[in-house]
Amino acid sequence: MEDQEQQILAVFKQLKNEHSSIMNKIAELESEANEHTLVINSIENLDPARKCWRLVGAILVGRSVGEVLPAVKRNRDGLLEIVQKLNQQLQAKTKEVNEFAQKYKIVKQSAGGEDQKRIAQKGSTGVLV
Fold first, then answer.
1. What distance in Å separates the CA atoms of residue 7 and residue 24, rounded to the nearest whole number?
2. 12, 65, 14, 59: which is closest to 40 by C-alpha?
3. C-beta separation of 8 from 127 below 8 A
4. pLDDT in tens, the chain (129 residues)
5. What's the sign of the alpha-carbon dihedral 100, 106, 111, 115?
């Protein structure tokens, strides 16, 4: 019974880690999209023939605003599409975590600032996480 409890907790921790990594990736990509928006707002009113610099990989490339602006907009739009897909994955993962927790009666309780985990024995109320 102890091994089965440990396996259930291991699967639950893995699901929570996957959920957390999706959330972190969303935050990272949203931040990047916001940076792109700041750049767009800064250069969209400039003369399209004006020279500007764009970092491509580790190389600084001199181009005109007219060339850079559409590329930055495409990149931002691509980032926002990825964020939208990740949000859908996050919703699915949240549902999966909640269903798993409900199936095995996993309950999160914090005592003394430290999380405690326990799998319910038969006749008990559930898992304490």
1. 26
2. 65
3. yes
4. 788 989 999 999 999 999 999 999 999 999 999 999 999 999 999 999 999 999 889 999 999 999 999 999 999 999 999 999 999 999 999 999 999 999 999 887 665 444 445 555 445 556 556
5. negative
Return all residues near 26 (Cβ < 8 A) that are at least 6 apart: 83, 86, 87, 90
Torsion of CA 110, 88, 97, 8, to 10 degrees: -120
Indicate the angle between helix axes 2-43 and 65-103, nearest 10 degrees: 160
| β strands within 42-104, DSSP E | 51-56, 59-64
Please state, in angstroms and as integers, the Cα–Cα distance from residue 57 to each residue in 3, 30, 61, 103, following that order. 48, 20, 10, 47
